[in-house]
# Entry
Amino acid sequence: MKPKPPIIFLHGLVSSGHGFKGNLFRSIFPHALTPDFTGSLEERLTQLYPIIGDRSGWTIIGSSFGGLMATIFATQQPDQVRKLILLAPALILPEFDKSSDPHIEVPTVIFHGKRDDVIPLESLRPICERVFTNLTFNVVDDDHRLHQTVQSLAWLDLVSKA
# Structure
């Protein structure tokens, strides 16, 4: 039997891998990793690298601050990432160095809520359109947490498509 492609969920700043989204992803993808991260962005990335290891083909699902982590990882290790799925990624934060002008060719799907009052759509979208060269940007009728959206997506299809 062919091994399942690796999937990891990176949670937001004040969340955990065992919250609502982490539990949802483990119920859909029992092999998915949903680790807990703590500390600064740098500390969290330091925690992420040994989990990913040298394995390639990862689908990384990142929510908010986890979306920031996923994006930075993809700029540093693009050959290890098969696909990014970002949920209201926190790319407007100063920790995302826009001055380095990254270009990410990894297929990327973003879901962002019209009612997001944490990461404003009008601030995020131009950054995403500049950074990601293979981007599908979905604006949904939801808030920053995207609970309604996350529950309604066809995750098996979304993850399986390149």
